[in-house]
Amino acid sequence: MWQELGIALCLVLVLEGILPFLCPRHWRDTLLQLMQLSDRQLRLLGLASMLLGTTVLYWLH
Predict the structure, then answer these.
(1) 45 touches 37 (CB < 8 A)
(2) What tens digit of pLDDT does each residue of 4-36 get?
(3) What residues form the membrane-spanning segments (predicted)?
(4) Are 41 and 33 in contact (CB under 8 A)?
(5) Rounded Cα distance, 34 and 28, in Å
């Protein structure tokens, strides 16, 4: 189980690094826009992301 968790975390790092590597200016602009969101909006965005990821993972499994 620990090996799969490590693999999953490594894949997260790879996926998180794709956008800053390919288009750093757009990525920076997006981060600046995210900083302007309220805490509630960020929480809702995080919740939507977790639900989408869980749904896709369940669908693929």
Answers:
(1) yes
(2) 999 999 999 999 999 999 999 999 999 999 999
(3) 6-23, 44-60
(4) no
(5) 10
